[in-house]
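>> Question from a student workshop board

For tomorrow's exercise we were told to take the sequence and the ligand below, predict the bound structure, and bring the output to class. My setup keeps failing. Could a helper post the expected result so I can at least see what it should look like? The ligand is zinc ion.
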Amino acid sequence: MFLSTPYLPRAYIDKMRAANLQVTMPRAAVLRALIRADVSLSQTEIYREVVQENISFTLSSVYNAISKMVHAGILQERLFESGRVYTVVETDRPIRVTCVSCGRSLFLNDSAITAFHREAMARLGFELKDYTLSIRAKCRPDCPGPVNAESRAA
Ligand SMILES: [Zn+2]
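>> Workshop helper replied:
Here is what the output should look like for this input. Compare the format with yours to find the bug.
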């Protein structure tokens, strides 16, 4: 399938434009992969996802797209002992919980936590506009461990 214009939800197109980044096919595909996954992914996992769309990109064009979007603040890169993982910087779900062991992330928008921050800011005389919160935790007692566990098992 050939797409003449890269499909991406409007909010992400606006984010790209605000960051002075053109919405190219590889960048859109990388963003779609991360939005679909809704968890942090390694470069290899992103590439695997992108290839499933039946659009042929080279590994380097995907890596380049990731790198440009990290520099533009659209993606966040985190380094774990197993390697780097990437997530979309979310402003509508400002709370990111990341597993300290496997590096998986999920995003939340919790009204109780937002209310807590709003009240804390009000006590300091500030009006909360937006916030991001990064929580490090262990995902579950039987966490699979580092992201690249599958390659170690091979
Ligand atoms: Zn974990």
